[in-house]
C-alpha cells in the first residue's frame, strides 16, 4: 500500500530528529534542524511527536533503509523473458545459422528450408525473411524473393539488407522502377556510408530505367512517323490524272468501262469517294465525262452516251454535241445514277 503525503512527511521528520540526536548534524546546526522540523510539521499539519504509527507503516525501517531498499530493487529488476520464448528464439537462431551455412555451400534448397523453419518459429523476424529472399533469388524464384523482402521491410523498415534484396529481385523481374525505388530507400538509410553493393545496384537500375524511357519515346515517335507516311501514301494513291482530285477511274473500270456490274461498282471504296466528290461538286462531272472509260460506263448502263442527236439539231445544255457524249442533264437526272450515288453517299440520304 502506498504511503500518504503526511506519512512521508512524518518519516522525514523522524529522520531529522534522529540525525540531530545521533551526531549526524553538528551541534552548531542542531537548533536549525529543530526549526526546520517545526516548519515542516506546521506546513503539512502533522504531529512531530508521533512516531509509532509511521514506524508500523514502513515496517520499523528508517528513511535511509527505505531509500536504500528502493535503489537496490530498481537495479536488480531483471528483464522478464519467458523461458519458452527464449527457447524458441534459440531454436530459430540455430535454424538461421544452418541456413547461412547452406548458402555458403550454395545449397540453396536447404537454405530455404532452414530459413523457413526459423520463420515458422518467429514469422515477423526481418532477418530471417530477408535471408530467405536471398535464397529464393539464388534459385531463380524471384517472385517469392520479392514477397519475402517486402515482408522484411514491412516488419522492420530500418533493415537495410532487405531493400538491396528487394531491389535485385524487382530488377530481374523487369520492375525497373520498383527496383530503383527499393535501392534508393536503402541508400537513404545508409547515408554517407552507403555500401558499394547498394550504390552499384541503384546506378544499374537507374541507367536501365533511363534506357527504357528513351526506347519508349523513340518507339512512339516511330509509330507516329509511320502513320503520317501511310496517310500521305493513301492520299497520293487516291488521286489520279483526272481533275478535281478524283481517282483514275479508267483503272477502276478496267480501262474499257468493265466494272463487273452495278454491284461491283457499289462495293468499290475508291469509286464511292469519286461519287461523293461529284455530288458535292456537280461541275466536276463535265470534266469527268471527257474520260472515255466513264463514257463507256454511261453507255453500258444506258445513261445517254451514244444517243442520237436531237431532232432540231440544237446543242446540248453543256455545250457539247449530243452525239459526241452523254447529255449532262439526262445523266444527272437519271434515276439509276442517282440511286447509285445515293447509296455511295450513305443509303437514304438525299444529295
Automatic annotation (TrEMBL):
Example of a GO biological process term: post-translational protein targeting to endoplasmic reticulum membrane
Keywords linked to the UniProt accession: Repeat, TPR repeat
Region of interest: Disordered: 217-251, 300-334
Swiss-Prot/TrEMBL TPR repeat ranges: 92-125, 160-193
Domain of life: Eukaryota
Residue stretches making up the SGTA homodimerisation domain: 4-67
SUPFAM superfamilies on file: TPR-like
GO CC terms: membrane; TRC complex
Listed Gene3D superfamilies: 1.10.260.100, Immunoglobulin FC, subunit C, Tetratricopeptide repeat domain
SMART domains: TPR (SM00028)
PROSITE patterns the UniProt entry points to: TPR
Keyword Membrane among record annotations: no
Molecular function, one GO term: molecular adaptor activity
PANTHER family for the chain: LD24721P
UniProt record similarity statement: Belongs to the SGT family.
Name by which UniProt lists this protein: BA75_00961T0
The encoding gene: SGT2
Amino acid at each position: 500500500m502506498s504511503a500518504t503525503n503526511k506519512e512521508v512527511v512524518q518519516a522525514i521528520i523522524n529522520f531529522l530528529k534522529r540525525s540531530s540526536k545521533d551526531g549526524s548534524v553538528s551541534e552548531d546546526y542542531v537548533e536549525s534542524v529543530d526549526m526546520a522540523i517545526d516548519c515542516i510539521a506546521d506546513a503539512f499539519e502533522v504531529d512531530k511527536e508521533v512516531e509509532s504509527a509511521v514506524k508500523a507503516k514502513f515496517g520499523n525501517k528508517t528513511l535511509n533503509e527505505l531509500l536504500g531498499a528502493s535503489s537496490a530493487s530498481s537495479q536488480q529488476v531483471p528483464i522478464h523473458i519467458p523461458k519458452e520464448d527464449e527457447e524458441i528464439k534459440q531454436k530459430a537462431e540455430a535454424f538461421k545459422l544452418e541456413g547461412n551455412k547452406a548458402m555458403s555451400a550454395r545449397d540453396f534448397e536447404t537454405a530455404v528450408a532452414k530459413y523457413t523453419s526459423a520463420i515458422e518459429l518467429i514469422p515477423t523476424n526481418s532477418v530471417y525473411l530477408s535471408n530467405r529472399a536471398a535464397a529464393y533469388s539464388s534459385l531463380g524464384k524471384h517472385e517469392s524473393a520479392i514477397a519475402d523482402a517486402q515482408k522484411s521491410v514491412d516488419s522492420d523498415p530500418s533493415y537495410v539488407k532487405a531493400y538491396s534484396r528487394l531491389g535485385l529481385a524487382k530488377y530481374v523481374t523487369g520492375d525497373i522502377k520498383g527496383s530503383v525505388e527499393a535501392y534508393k530507400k536503402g541508400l537513404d538509410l545508409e547515408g554517407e556510408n552507403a555500401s558499394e553493393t547498394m550504390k552499384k545496384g541503384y546506378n544499374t537500375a537507374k541507367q536501365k530505367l533511363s534506357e527504357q524511357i528513351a526506347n519508349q519515346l523513340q518507339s512512339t515517335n516511330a509509330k507516329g512517323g509511320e502513320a503520317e507516311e501511310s496517310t500521305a501514301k493513301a492520299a497520293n494513291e487516291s488521286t489520279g490524272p483526272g481533275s478535281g482530285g478524283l481517282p483514275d477511274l479508267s483503272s477502276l473500270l478496267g480501262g474499257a468501262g468493265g466494272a463487273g456490274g452495278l454491284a461491283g461498282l457499289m462495293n468499290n471504296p475508291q469509286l464511292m469517294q469519286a461519287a461523293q466528290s461529284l455530288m458535292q461538286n456537280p461541275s466536276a462531272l463535265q470534266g469527268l465525262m471527257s474520260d472515255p472509260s466513264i463514257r463507256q460506263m454511261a453507255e453500258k448502263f444506258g445513261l445517254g452516251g451514244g444517243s442520237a442527236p436531237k431532232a432540231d439539231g440544237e446543242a446540248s445544255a453543256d455545250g457539247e454535241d449530243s452525239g459526241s457524249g452523254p447529255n449532262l442533264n439526262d445523266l444527272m437526272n437519271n434515276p439509276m445514277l442517282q440511286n447509285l450515288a445515293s447509296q455511295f453517299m450513305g443509303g437514304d440520304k438525299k444529295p
